[in-house]
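QA checklist item 7 of 12: single-chain prediction sanity check.
[x] sequence parsed
[x] length recorded as 380
[x] structure emitted
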Amino acid sequence: MKKKIQNGVSILVMLILLFTVIPMGVMAENQVVNNDSQTVNATTVPNCTYRTHVENIGWQDWKSNGTMSGTSGQGLRLEGIEIKLNNQGYDLNVEYSTHIQNIGWQDFKSNGVMSGTSGQGLRLEAIKINLTGNDAELFDIYYRVHAQNVGWLDWASNGAESGTAGYGYRLEGIEIKIVPKGNPAPGATANPFKENIEAPYSPILQEYRTAEANGFSSEVLKSLPDVNKELYLSSYKTKLYYIVEDISGDSSPELVIAMYNPKYHNSVHPNDFQIYDVYRLNNGTTERIFDIYTMGYRAIYTICENQIIRCYGSGGISAHADTFYKLNENTTATVQTVKYEKPYYILNDAKNLNRTITKDAADKIINSYIPRSDLQWIEL
């Protein structure tokens, strides 16, 4: 009898293990623990569905989970997109904004509302997609686009820009996928967006090309408002060069126009380029930074390290000055000025107003500003 009881207990224990351990194992297979130690059931990751309106085709069927929507090899633009979620019981929504030819970024749309245009023949050029809601922190949304003349760009995620800017390239296809937060991306993520940083300055560059093609004649320069009129005074007519470079360190590059003069080479301007114009973007509008009356003709500007531009201006053998400007976003501040007024060297800065200093002290200040050696000038 005792043996029968022991056997019964053993069977009962086995049954308990069978109905507890095995289901727990099955459940574990269906769970993904993300980087924030939050658990998401892998069988209920939200399904993202999307469709695009394609040139000459119209609305395509709905696609999902990384399948391409759009076309390949047909040269057809995307004109609109709709995105929605099967959120599997999560508090989750999707919002998206598209950058449209001749319009720019539209306001965010959400949950199946069209972003783009209808009947206007305008291409989509870029897109941003983001998850919203209390459970958005549980997931990452990834997306990548196929752009004209570029091909597939890398994957962007969680509201980052995907596509191109400043090239006029159309989007031709898109893939979208949701994964548990912190899980690996579907592919490479280094280059999801390609921007033509020269685009805002294209009209200015074209004016300078026109000026150069006409020998910088004073009559032609009168019709070119963005060109430095002092160019017609130049005693040498050589090639123009330019750079589009983030001098100010605010991620918005400036445009610098210079003339190459192989005969001009001294300690003031060692790289043989005389700067004639500097532009920056201020809330999307181009503006000239420095007074061009003296630029190139009576003053020599040099781009230095640490957001500094040096201006060496000469008033003759008995007077000259070095002024150092710091570019910071949309402001230009004078840091220091070292003047020579025979026989004195004079320092002006925030702490010293018209203080006389020695020549050695003046040279030490001037030489502390190092010209940038990494600039790659481009022939206009």
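[x] summary fact logged: The first strand starts at residue 31 and ends at 33.
[ ] second reviewer sign-off
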